[in-house]
Amino acid sequence: MRVFTMNKLFTITLISSVILFDSCNMIRPFFIKNKKKETRKENRTEKKIERKENKIEKKQDKVSELKNTISKSDSLPTIKKESLIVLTPDTAYANRLINTKKINYTTFQCKAKMHFESETEKQNFNIHFRIKKDSVIWASINAPIIGEVARALITPDSVKAFERMNKKQYLYSYKDIQKLINLQVDFSTLQELILGNAIATDGTITDIKVLGPLANIFIKGIDYTSQLTYTKEDSTLKQIQLQTARSTTTSSLLIVMNQYQPIGLRFLPVQRQYTILDLKGAIQLDMDINKAEFDIEVDFPFTIPKNFTLQD
What we know:
Layout: H1 6-16, H2 35-71, H3 91-100, E1 107-118, E2 122-132, E3 136-143, E4 147-154, E5 159-163, E6 168-172, H4 174-181, H5 187-195, E7 204-211, E8 214-220, E9 224-231, E10 237-244, E11 251-263, E12 266-278, E13 281-294, E14 309-310
């Protein structure tokens, strides 16, 4: 079996942990927008709105003329002035749905089978997560036959990791991680991604659309847009699409939740698919959780052997 390099392994660790987000609790979704195309689209939209406003003005003028005519003839019926009705999204309902469907917990641990695939390689491995909410995320990666190949300890301040095969240790700030994987990272968002909760929910809800068995909530933040898709039958989160508009980098993420299982009183999405697309290419990560537990006592063993070399 091919030996993992640390950069590749650590990138997989972060993707497996789904550290794909920035300090405004967001990532980027599945479809990359072309700026020129978007500008043309916005111009077309503005022209459509302008034409519609002109039609409304002409219609109102005709109504006014007709009202003047009607006032001169008692035999004609009274015509009421028309009004344009604009429906606004039920933001209170949408926020309530997002919050009530969030998985709340004190501690969480799970074991999952992972399949990683890029344009140049494929890898299968197992991962074990342990989380103490808002405090620590512990991850252990195991390769078939070989056993544990790496371990990471993630806190709100830093990421520590070591690689057994090459006897190397790593200490990263979040700025270092950003340079390594070309994405900004955020601890709290990472927690939500591992749990399967909604993310990028702190913006403004711009629309709610119901299409058949699905309800879609559209959110716009300062530098991102997101779409959360819920099933109408049981209100479970089915899909997340996120996209940011930054001048330096462009990438996108689609998360699909394929199956929910009851874990105690909670419903956990145990099968997930992450599709990440950026300028460097596409990455797909499949996650199949085979064991999960909430609110039990967990520890975070992380001792780096003395003979492991610290890497720059």
